[in-house]
Amino acid sequence: MELVLHPGLVERTVFEAARRDGTLRAHYERQFAQCYGHASSAQRERAFAELHRRWFTELGLDQLLVGFVRGFPHVHEQVCRLVVARAPAPRAQTSELYGAPGRFTIVLTIAPTLMLDRSAFDYWAGHELLRIDDMLNPAFGHRPGEQPVGHTSAAQALMTDRFALLWAISIDARLERRGALPRTVRQVRTGELARAFALNDPGAISTALDDLWHDWAGSPPTHSQLIHLARTGLAVSDQSAVQSSVVARPPAGALCPLCRFPTFDWTDSSPELEGLNGVICVDFPDWSPHEPICSRCAEVYRAGARRRQNTSTRVSSPLAAAGNPRSD
Ligand SMILES: [Zn+2]
What we know:
By secondary structure, this protein is an alpha/beta fold. It has helices spanning 7-20, 22-35, 41-58, 61-69, 73-78, 112-115, 118-136, 153-177, 185-196, 202-218, 223-232, 235-247, 271-274, 277-283, 295-316, 318-323, and strands at 2-5, 79-86, 94-98, 104-110, 254-255, 262-263, 266-267, 293-294. A hairpin with a 5-residue loop joins strand 3 (94-98) and strand 4.
């Protein structure tokens, strides 16, 4: 695999490494000053670039990147080029897979501080490369065109979030086995799972995460299984939903089962909403019509129903149909 390093990443990482270590810093400053000895500016620029590239290698960072990739068999076998550029901050880091079989390229943008923090690097890079490894693994069955769907943008966003979270959990479960999972991650995923599936019962949330984690650590899910689970929800969420709906409306500030925002204004599943249950259930198969939803979600579905009604009225008019033969 060819390794392409952007000079901005190389220079900034070396600078940061020297800044942190008094001994390195003295060496670096002396060699940096020597670069000014070149007569032309082009020569000086070349000398600075060579200095930083040499130091990057001597700090073991080329080897870190190349050696790390070997831990991901499908990436190692199928990716021809690894391009690493600088991200301004850890939050802005990205990873992308480009190309096609025989000419795949991975582009990582990494913050220089992460390059120098081995455990943080192991988790971030491990998570990103395992995701790409899944994409390249025939057993995962990645189909980029197959995305979660829904009638409203809220439903689409929710399914997309659930899919991404479930995939992330399957990756984290495997990273834990490799000893590359920071202790705080599992707690973060617990909160994310509760929001994504509108689980309000701490016991149910913890059981749901434990079950997924246990199942997926040794036997990761396929793309289709993740899509299916994002759509149908977790078995445990049905339990908590039924319990909460039968007993009483959820407490103020509990999460709406559709949009997952804390809710103080509930709409009960009244006769008024009955005509909408079918459409809501298509978007949220794990929602039970007995469960209250927030008044904002209720209004979104009422508006959708009004829109559909208006459209069908217009199209059923012979004049409208004649003027717009492709309407359906
Ligand atoms: Zn809602």
